[in-house]
């Protein structure tokens, strides 16, 4: 609950501040984690499992208003680029994973999602607001960090992904 209060407060602060000094920055390797799947019981996944793909790593929670808008649009993007070496990977930060599962079912989200009720990946990536996303290249290097979300952000997100996919060809 304390982390939830902090995240709500920090989301408001991100309107005024950029990423904190401890957040992973472009050019740094993404922190490799092992987390349980939010939707497939007993399945564990690591960030390194997706090496060779461009990864849009999205930290979200069921109580996050902007996440309600971003997840369906990211799911559409994931489906549109299904034939490319690209994946949207969500990390749910709800204290109770069932809240995240219900949220995904309600919105009809299909891209892979992991559960991090402890917040360890949140801490390691230096997330300071919700949602926060990291665009990671095929070698596992963070290329771009995006904090917050409005529907118009897709006009920036998709070209960055497309550019990384072209670089890998």
Task: Provide a descriptive summary of the structure in words.
- It is a single chain.
- This protein has 169 residues and is an alpha/beta fold.
- The protein has a single domain, classed as Glutaredoxin (3-Layer(aba) Sandwich).
- It contains 5 helices and 7 strands.
- The strands form 2 sheets. A 5-stranded mixed sheet has the order 5-4-3-6-7, covered by helices on one side. A two-stranded antiparallel sheet has the order 1-2.
- Strand 6 and strand 7 form a beta hairpin.
- The longest helix has 16 residues.
- About 8% of the residues have low confidence.
Summary?
With 169 residues, the protein is of the alpha/beta class. It has one domain (2-167): Glutaredoxin. 35% of the residues lie in helices and 20% in strands.
Topology overview:
Elements: H1 2-13, E1 34-36, E2 44-46, E3 54-60, H2 65-80, E4 86-92, H3 97-107, E5 113-115, H4 120-125, E6 132-136, E7 142-147, H5 154-167
Parallel strand pairs: 3-4, 4-5
Antiparallel strand pairs: 1-2, 3-6, 6-7
Organism: Oceanobacter antarcticus
Signal peptide: 1-23
Domain Thioredoxin: 24-166
Based on secondary structure, the structural category is: alpha/beta
How are the strands ordered across the major sheet?
A: 5-4-3-6-7
CATH class: Alpha Beta
Helical element count? 5
Largest sheet: 5 strands, mixed
What value does the Rg take, in angstroms?
A: 15 Å
Share of helical residues:
25-40%
The overall average pLDDT, rounded, is 87
How does the overall form come out from the CA principal axes?
Answer: globular
Protein name: TlpA disulfide reductase family protein
Pfam family, one: Redoxin
Keywords: Signal
InterPro entries: Redoxin, Thioredoxin-like_sf, Thioredoxin_domain, Thioredoxin_ResA/DsbE_sf
